[in-house]
UniProtKB/TrEMBL annotation:
The keyword Metal-binding applies. Transmembrane segments: none annotated. SUPFAM superfamilies: Aldolase. It comes from Ruminiclostridium papyrosolvens DSM 2782. Homooctamer. Keywords: Heme biosynthesis, Lyase, Magnesium, Metal-binding, Porphyrin biosynthesis, Zinc. One of its GO terms (molecular function) is porphobilinogen synthase activity. This is Delta-aminolevulinic acid dehydratase.
């Protein structure tokens, strides 16, 4: 026998030397939820270990992330008042805008990315303006522009549209440029599937649609070619970073988009992926740390450059310890 693949597995130093996938703490993004009010830090029941912070308290979440080596956060806002048109989403003094200002004032080194969508702000929980029971694509675009501009004015470093309206990347790029925000990148949720893995998030963000589902705007999970189509359209429209979401059940899509495009690629390991690991571990069925590490590496192995995950702090520590990467 000449070929003995096991030779390269005989010791830890050699195993680590021949690793094909390298991870960096620079590639991690921690989502944070900002809720209206004062002096609030409350654990989210559907996402153990994640918190609702009021704007005055969100610094704590940011500080913990920084301490763990995470340099980037993705912000979601939970307004008290919701209406048909999601007006709180573009209120210059809205909950998210307050949170952005608080973070950028106290921790200017933290990169702040904001989710651009309407579902947390609309009374009906859909991601745009309704025409009857349908989300009206073209009437929604100007609202997304207003939201992105208000985030940019509050100090957001990057905007990340997650609404899945057609043409929104071009609309946002044009609006940002016209208003002097030529250097604010757009991270597009280019390939976002209609997924049951968002369940815990919708509970955390209060964004479950009041009727129907999101299948008329988010993608059908039977499709992979369509993912490439969506990604290439966003490249044409001026996206700076592409994203695939969810991650674990879509590793083939991550690989495909990585191969067919040239932009940096983010993957969002969503709330259901996190909650499944937490739930199984809490019952003693799996080793939480081991499964977390293995899952994170698999997403980078598939081709992601950036990982958005509720485990960002823990993965960062695992990288620093040398357990992965
Ligand atoms: C807003 C949005 C959602 C998520 C990110 N942005 C929910 C949805 O589309 O229903 C999901 C994130 C997660 O599950 O962790 N549209």
């Amino acid at each position: 026998m000449i070929n003995r693949p096991r030779r390269l597995r005989t010791g830890e130093v050699l195993r680590k030397a021949v690793r094909e996938t390298r991870l960096s703490t620079d590639s991690l993004i921690q989502p944070l939820f900002i809720i209206e009010g004062n002096n609030i830090k409350k654990e989210i029941s559907s996402l153990p270990g994640q918190y609702h912070y009021s704007p005055d308290m969100v610094g704590e979440g940011v500080e913990n992330a920084l301490k763990a080596g995470v340099k980037s956060v993705l912000l979601f806002g939970l307004p008290e008042h919701k209406d048909e048109k999601g007006t709180e989403a573009y209120n210059e003094n809205g909950v998210l805008q307050q949170g952005i200002r608080e973070i950028k004032q106290r921790y200017p080194q933290m990169q702040v990315i904001t989710d651009i969508c309407m579902c947390e702000y609309t009374s009906h929980g859909h991601c745009g303006i309704l025409e009857g029971e349908k989300v009206d694509n073209d009437r929604t675009l100007p609202y997304l522009e207003k939201i992105a501009l208000s985030h940019a004015r509050a100090g957001a470093d990057i905007v990340a549209p997650s609404d899945m309206m057609d043409g929104r990347i071009n609309a946002l790029r044009t609006a940002l440029d016209k208003n002097g925000f030529t250097d604010i990148p757009v991270m597009s949720y280019a390939v976002k599937y209609a997924s049951s893995f968002y369940g815990p998030f919708r509970e955390a963000a209060g964004s479950t649609p009041a009727f129907g589902d999101r299948k008329s705007y988010q993608m059908d999970y039977h499709n992979r070619r369509e993912a490439v189509k969506e990604a290439l359209l966003d490249v044409e429209e001026g996206a700076d970073i592409l994203m695939v979401k969810p991650a674990l059940a879509y590793l083939d899509v991550i690989k495909e988009v990585r191969e067919k495009t040239k932009l940096p690629l983010a993957a969002y390991s969503v709330s259901g992926e996190y909650a499944m690991i937490k739930a199984a571990a809490s019952q003693g069925l799996i080793d939480e740390y081991g499964v977390m590490c293995e899952s994170a590496v698999s997403i980078f192995r598939a081709g992601a450059d950036i990982l958005i995950t509720y485990f960002a702090k823990e993965i960062s520590e695992a990288i620093k310890k040398g357990d992965i990467g």
